[in-house]
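INFO batch 0412 | record 1 of 1 | parsing
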Amino acid sequence: MKSIKIIGIILFSIVLNSCSDSFLDKTKLGALSTEKFFLTEIDADQSVIAAYSDLKDYRYTWTIWAFGDVLSDDATYSGSAADAQAYATMESFNYPVDNGRVLQRYQMLFRGVNKANQAIEGIKKMDEAIFKTISKNKLLGEALFLRAYYYHELVIAYGAVPLMTSTPTIADKTLTRTPVADVYAQIEKDLIDAASYLPKKENQNLVKEAGRITKGAANAMLSRVYLFEKKYELCKAASKEVFKESYALVPNYADIFTLAGEHGSESILEIDHYNSSSQSGATTNNGNFHVLMMLPGGVTYGYGINQPSANLAAAFDAEGDVVRKDATLLTMADLILWEGATNAAKVTNVRSGYWNQKFYLKPAQRSVEIRNNPVNNRLIRLSEVYLNYAEACAKTPTATDGENEARTYLNLVRARVNLLPKISTGNALFEDVFNERRLELAMEGHRFFDLVRTGKAATVLASKGNFRAGISDLLPIPQAEIDNSGGVITQNPL
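INFO prediction complete | emitting tokens
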């Protein structure tokens, strides 16, 4: 049951509304001040739900795959010839400073930060006695997690960004970029605090609270963050906190990405989407826009923009990974089977011969309102945490968290898809874990950022374009944001 139906609840803003569309999102969003809004526990809950809303906004979620998949060796930007041509400079790592996806990710994530800050500030000031049916600490934990999540998505894409931990004021217009280490320190603190406030998944009412952030999500996100920072011992510790909970791998890999598989045993965080038949606008609905985006062009209303590559298909074949290949790559044979030969014959722009099956819905499951398809976005799964832990153990083996543990958790992921266990050691073990990560998380927006954080991008992506280590690792700061700051915010190397 879809429980946290994230609607774009409009929050107040106490900053001046004379500022233009900058990263501060200072436009006045409503008439209520913080003092007048945060009066009841329902107000507090609505403020947090508003902070969730940017996790489902397609202007942000588009960038998960447009950067995480398409900039990697796993996919290419397809769709019409004009679509593909327009994104070609991005795929060749000559990032335009005015690219729409670059701007939207930056703005949407900072909008989420602003909403989370408003919720944190407002809820902290509220009397504990007001909260009768909703836990004040739980709401704070959710908002802290969201701020940390949004900032991590910013820092891996743009590097140093302005750090704000309160609702912005006019003085923040001249806020400069904060060093990456300081941003990460705040992310860590927020997630640690969130984990201390939040309930475990097994203590949530999944009928009413499915999709809400839990202690497991905070620790899993910490595991991811520490892996990016190469803080391997802390990554291990955070991962083991997740392992203490009641998560378990779903026996059939393909089931994870079905409607019936939503909020399954390995789901740590997924964003609910549902068919809201009365809402059909791109930003005024609760459906998953990416079913439309991933569906092959010419099939019903598909765009077919994010096409998996032949390179990814070959990687599955090299490992003998039939299960995950079949669950990840939608083929023409699949289309003939599920769409019918007549409809399959209408497919256009068949560049790689594959499409992303993880967002595919069969015809009877699709919404009449084309943007309102109900399939959820899976943001954190248990298998990712298994592989985070395995990588950390392989990189810095110790007596208690060493190569045996790395192989154990690597092979748990492999056994689920009927692959033989790995027995490698040393750097070969790390390479096995890293390859497993590619296959397990394929087309879920991880690959490019994984290549960058491990220093592999320049080598792996050499055939795709002019990737320059230390330059192409980061997207440009949107030129519009530099202009809005009067040049206070500086550009990344281009």
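INFO post-check: The radius of gyration is 22 Å.
INFO record closed
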